[in-house]
Design brief:
The protein is mostly beta strands and 603 residues long. It contains three helices and 45 strands. It is elongated.
Length: 603
């Protein structure tokens, strides 16, 4: 599919879409413009070398297209304006010489094609290929003298791997993908000077500008590529996208945008724009949409939409209804919260930038947009949740773009306990607590429903008193049922090496990369805090290693066997005799007291 921006008075200018990360804050300067061979003789000579030089660089939007090229190298006085443009290295091109069909004036190879009979390839000219240098330039020398005269077709071509690619001269990143190659164009050699038709240019310079749409999607969970926390606690997913250029342009000159497409990629009519500096035209992208079909195990509490300021550090909230619109499962949501707290229910969130939003992020020079999904899971959830998102947008004159992010993961694990007597019979009524370390288990410090630990009872020898649990927080406990089964679910797992000890995964540190799933696990210690009737407590904590698979195992991870209570001797008769003696003594004392009282009264 072809695409071009074209003014009402000049030749085609290719516009492409490129994917991949762009170097920020640095540009590659153009080489000093060479002195061109421009002759005042209207008749072509037989001594000058004929050449075409391409200068390949990027622009941010249609408003930067400038005037049409005239085939001349840039004037040194104007060249500094190009310092802010980022050039494209190692872009592959070819040129062939063509022979127009009778009566055909070749001006636009998009409209006048070889297949349509507008021209044939000149077999006397050997096809030339090349790639742009670090300054974005590429020169084709086609020969010397009149034998080199003619009309040439310049085309961007694929690399040796069959793809359109380029090298970022700032970062050095190679084989970056070009989604849409530059549109081809015709060049006469020698070319008549545009502003003085009595002169000829033997070394023509062309400046194809390319609008870059580098979306660079990045999905994270709590800022990293993996995450685990006690199930039931809040956490968030971040869908961060580099904003593509061309979402909004202020057009100040007449222009025709050709090769337009609808969202399905079907060609639609050209857009003729009438504009001037006094009456500019606002050109917007057809749409920019972030779609996240959240895992149904997630419980959605709300979302937040933010953009990253050009300072590279400040995230700013956008306004729902003004800067963006939201739908949940196809239903528009006009205000926050955007919520669905039903496990198993669909939660497809779609965020669309409005035209006001496109204009705002462009004028503010914001660089990225992110959607923050505030979520949780049910307290007994075990397993892995992965999630990705899509970005779709359509810049006028380009093909529709759809990108998909990677899939970070959220983890929880659980394990089963079997409670029996020494014969293997099931025991019910045994209560267990869980600790993060063996020392915590010995010190009565246990895990609670908020994912934190608290001291349950004061210990001997001046051990600190029990902690007061926050309101709504309970210790995690499990009691064996009639079948002797108990379990703990939704436990946090270790999934990365915390190199700097800050408790947070930092993807920028190689050693903190997410572990392979087989290595994700965590040790816990169980403590029996209440034994079944007729049995002794376990007395020592037991370690259990929890993995992503333990909750799915058919066999329990640990079997706890209780010893029966011993039968102590009967207390015997001594205790009864003592009670009788005490009773007789009480009666004797009472009788004496009555006798003494009677004698006193008689006197």
């Amino acid at each position: 599919m072809k695409r071009k921006w074209i003014s009402k008075t000049a030749m085609t200018l290719g516009v492409l879409t490129m994917l991949g990360a762009a170097g920020a804050g640095t540009t590659v300067a153009f080489a000093a413009p060479p002195t061109q061979n421009i002759s005042g003789n209207a008749v072509s000579d037989n001594t000058s070398k004929r050449s075409i030089t391409i200068w390949k660089y990027e622009i941010n939007s249609a408003s930067e297209l400038g005037e049409r090229g005239d085939g001349e190298s840039l004037d040194p006085a104007v060249a500094p304006d190009l310092q802010g443009k980022k050039v494209m290295q190692d872009v592959n091109f070819e040129i062939v010489r063509v022979i127009p069909a009778a009566g055909v004036d070749l001006t636009d190879p998009l409209q006048q094609t070889e297949a349509g009979g507008a021209y044939t390839i000149d077999p006397t000219f050997t096809r030339q290929t090349g790639k742009t240098a670090a300054d974005g330039s590429l020169t084709f020398d086609v020969g010397t003298g009149k034998a080199a005269d003619g009309i040439y077709l310049v085309r961007e071509i694929k690399d040796g791997n069959g793809e359109y690619t380029y090298t970022d001269p700032v970062t050095g990143e190679t084989d970056k993908k070009i989604n849409k190659p530059m549109d081809p164009f015709f060049v006469w050699l020698p070319q008549t000077k545009r502003d003085d038709t009595s002169k000829l240019i033997y070394d023509v310079h062309v400046h194809p500008k390319n609008i870059v749409t580098d979306t660079d999607l990045d999905k994270t969970v709590q800022g990293g590529k993996g995450y685990s926390i006690k199930a039931g606690q809040d956490f968030q997913w971040e869908a961060t996208t580099k904003l593509p250029d061309g979402l909004y342009s202020e057009i100040t000159k007449d222009m025709t945008i050709t090769n337009r497409h609808d969202k399905d990629g079907n060609p639609i009519a050209d857009l003729n724009i009438t504009a001037s500096p006094a009456a500019p035209y606002d050109l917007f992208a057809d749409y920019f949409t972030v779609t996240d079909d959240l895992n149904t195990n997630l419980l959605l509490k709300d979302i937040v939409i933010q953009v990253l300021d050009k300072d590279g550090t400040t995230w700013k909230d956008l306004t729902i209804g003004t800067d963006y619109k939201v739908s949940l499962n196809g239903t528009a949501v006009a205000a926050h919260p955007v919520t669905n707290m039903t496990a198993g229910a669909a939660k497809k969130v779609e965020v669309d930038l409005t035209q006001d939003g496109m204009k705002r992020v462009t004028n503010d020079e914001d660089t990225h947009i992110r959607v923050v999904y505030k979520t949780t899971v049910e307290e007994d959830f075990n397993g892995v949740i992965t999630n990705k998102y899509d970005v779709d947008y359509l810049i006028p004159g380009q093909e529709p773009v759809k990108d998909t992010s990677d899939e970070p993961e959220y983890y929880n694990g659980g394990f089963d306990i079997k409670k029996t007597d020494k014969s293997g019979a099931d025991l019910s009524g045994a209560e267990f607590h869980i600790a993060l370390t063996e020392q915590d288990a010995e010190d009565n410090i246990f895990l609670a429903s908020d994912g934190k630990t608290y001291r349950k009872t004061a210990g001997p020898g001046g051990t600190p008193a029990a902690d007061t649990l926050p309101a709504g927080v309970d210790y995690l406990t499990s009691t064996s049922d009639a079948s002797g089964n108990a379990q703990f679910d939704g436990l946090k797992l270790d999934w990365f090496t915390d190199s700097n000890g800050n408790g947070e995964q930092e993807p920028s540190i190689p050693s903190e990369a997410t572990w392979d799933r087989a290595d994700i696990k965590k040790d816990y210690w169980i403590v029996e805090t209440k034994s079944p009737d007729g049995f002794e407590l376990l007395k020592d904590p037991k370690k259990v290693t929890v993995t992503l698979d333990t909750h799915e195992n058919n066999a329990p991870e640990i079997t706890v066997v209780n010893e029966p209570k011993t039968k102590l001797p009967f207390t015997g008769g001594t205790g009864t005799m003592l009670i009788v003696i005490i009773a007789i003594g009480a009666i004797t004392i009472g009788t004496a007291a009555i006798a003494i009282d009677k004698k006193r009264r008689a006197v």
